[in-house]
Amino acid sequence: MLDSVQDAWRLIEREIPPAAPAEKGLPLALCDGLVSTTAIHATGDSPPFDKSLMDGYAIRFDDYAAGRREFDILEEVTAGNTATRELTAGGTIRIMTGAPLPTGADCVIPVELVTSQTAITVTLDAPKARAEGNLARQGQAIRKGDLVLPAGTVLGPAQLGALAEMGVSSVLAIPRPSVSIVATGDELVPYEQVPGPGQIRNSNEIMLVTQARRAGAAPVQSTIARDTRADLMTAIREGLKSDFLVLSGGVSAGVLDLVPSVLAECGCEQVFHGCNVKPGKPIWFGRLTAERSPDGRPHWIFGLPGNPVSSMVCFELFVRMGIHRRRGIQPSQPLMHSARLTAPHVSRDSRPTYFPAVITPSEQGFLARPLAWQGSFDLQTVALANGFVLFETATERQAGEEVPTLILDR
Ligand SMILES: Nc1nc2c(c(=O)[nH]1)N[C@H]1C(S)=C(S)[C@@H](COP(=O)(O)OP(=O)(O)OC[C@H]3O[C@@H](n4cnc5c(N)ncnc54)[C@H](O)[C@@H]3O)O[C@H]1N2
Ligand code: MOO
């Protein structure tokens, strides 16, 4: 058994390299959350021309500095058009935000500073006027050839917008890894059904599919496997067509905890089994190497403990990290945030424990309120939490003390 979550992280990081990019560039609309694998350079200047940042009047600042306040209106230019003439001394061109700055202009006075106006003249009073005021020069944000995004950037709204501005319509990026989910157990019935004696509804499958999607993977299939070697083997063989196979249940010490041995029979090699963490102690992690895999590609397998909260926490701590690693996201480990406890807490457990809590922002930083959690079977309490407080082994913590927390994605 591993001593710590950190040991598990190191092994997962060692085992799972980032995937290669898709062979062809992917259209921007499909790239949200993907990591680009090449540096992207500007195809032109941004802004592409000198432009006004205000609705107002373009002038020559020298005119204003010399004391002129009344200007002759030469023409009007709106965004999407260009002025037909140059701005000459004593003149002004009425200009809208985003319109190209007329040649000769070097200052825009906002329309709010007009003191009087006729059909052909305008009087301006702008005590703070300055040369280059209220305009942006061509290339002020970025110049043609400059780096827009370094390789390894996670593409999100701003990045995709910046690429669209540059006319970059497709990107070489790492595609989403595929994930199969297999819930194991003779006691499971689909959640739409009424369980018989000793049976329970399969809550883990939809939970893990949802977690996989939120981790940026593509869940391709999910199923229930019964606790027989034959049924497990069929489900595992099918699941091993995905980049990641995530199983829940059957990894501890019971007579029907067959998952590790059937995985071995299917050619999977164990990297670790067991970690000093609560919930989640019996977690299993391994690989099916490209050499042993029927499709010649590597696959990774997480056997999560069946208790719903154990499955959920192990996904957040380990599977999500494996998926992030494959997607090329750095750092891949979960990010911990410090918070202050709102109430004292006694932890008698011999394992470091991720304890469900409500974590809220405050002016003094995050506050964490541990919930009345009953243990690994108690998913109902976790459903009211938005994260976990990490309590180290057998500790007594006072209200106000700082503790590490893991905040869940919304
Ligand atoms: N003698 C020992 N017993 C147990 C140990 C141990 O070290 N020695 N570890 C305990 C810990 S810690 C955990 S966690 C559980 C994990 O056990 P398994 O992974 O083998 O899971 P199962 O026995 O199959 O199921 C545990 C529990 O969860 C329920 N379950 C399973 N799958 C689902 C599902 N898809 N949806 C909802 N609920 C599910 C299952 O019915 C059981 O109640 O082992 C302890 N035992
Ligand atoms: O590790 Mo188990 O998940 O404590 O209940």
TrEMBL record:
It catalyses: adenylyl-molybdopterin + molybdate = Mo-molybdopterin + AMP + H(+). SMART domains: MoCF_biosynth. Residues 180-325 form the MoaB/Mog domain. Pfam families: MoCF_biosynth, MoeA_C, MoeA_N. It comes from the Bacteria. The keyword Transmembrane helix does not apply. Its cofactor is Mg(2+). Pathway: Cofactor biosynthesis; molybdopterin biosynthesis. Its EC number is 2.10.1.1. Keywords: Magnesium, Metal-binding, Molybdenum, Molybdenum cofactor biosynthesis, Transferase. InterPro entries: MoaB/Mog-like_dom_sf (IPR036425), MoaB/Mog_dom (IPR001453), MoeA-like (IPR038987), MoeA_C_domain_IV (IPR005111), MoeA_C_domain_IV_sf (IPR036688), MoeA_linker/N (IPR005110), MoeA_linker/N_sf (IPR036135). SUPFAM superfamilies: MoeA C-terminal domain-like, MoeA N-terminal region -like, Molybdenum cofactor biosynthesis proteins. GO terms for biological process: Mo-molybdopterin cofactor biosynthetic process. GO terms for molecular function: metal ion binding; molybdopterin molybdotransferase activity. Gene3D superfamilies: MoaB/Mog-like domain, MoeA, C-terminal, domain IV, Molybdopterin biosynthesis moea protein, domain 2, Molybdopterin biosynthesis moea protein, domain 3. NCBIfam families: Glp_gephyrin. Belongs to the MoeA family. Catalyzes the insertion of molybdate into adenylated molybdopterin with the concomitant release of AMP. This is Molybdopterin molybdenumtransferase. The gene is moeA.
